[in-house]
What we know:
The chain contains eleven helices and no strands. The chain has helices spanning 5-17, 21-34, 39-51, 55-67, 71-82, 87-97, 107-119, 123-137, 140-152, 156-169, 174-186.
Amino acid sequence: LSADPAVAQEATQLALSQKDWPLARRGLERWQALAPKAPGIDQAQAWIALGEGRAKDAFPYLQSLAARGDEQGWRLVAQTLLNAPDKVGAAVLLARLVTADGFAAKETNAVAVSQLAFKLGDKSLARRLADNAVARFHGEEAYAWSAHLAAVSSDVPRAKSILAEAIARHPKSKRLRAGYATLLGQGGDNVAA
């Protein structure tokens, strides 16, 4: 056996990707012995628990990753939840994780977590998180994502309203202006576009 934690990490990640839970647990034990504070250990614990259908056991590990308060922690949470076999269960875990406000310290994190909720199929959580990001940050990224959610939900008036507000706050944003013009054009309002 190698004494290199990177080798143990790679072995664990390979077993996770193959959904070989017993092998992943053995690799994880070795990795944990060599690098007990590596953030990927919590991710692997959660990933194995989700793979084995033990969402309740996965939650504390996901919570530990989210509590880091940095982008890496949330990136590991997202990877784990997106790879969960039960997307509905993963969305429920995400909803529990976002009750704490720490994930939304930065606009990019708030939008990314909303996008994660959308990918997991929880459109109402995605909408709520997007609305919160707009209210808190008033940033271009939050407005663009919020308008996108409205548009894909066929709520064109809401999408227009969001983009109009966004352009009022960010009049030089080519991204927001192009999105608004596209939306107007799709609705047949070529003059306003």
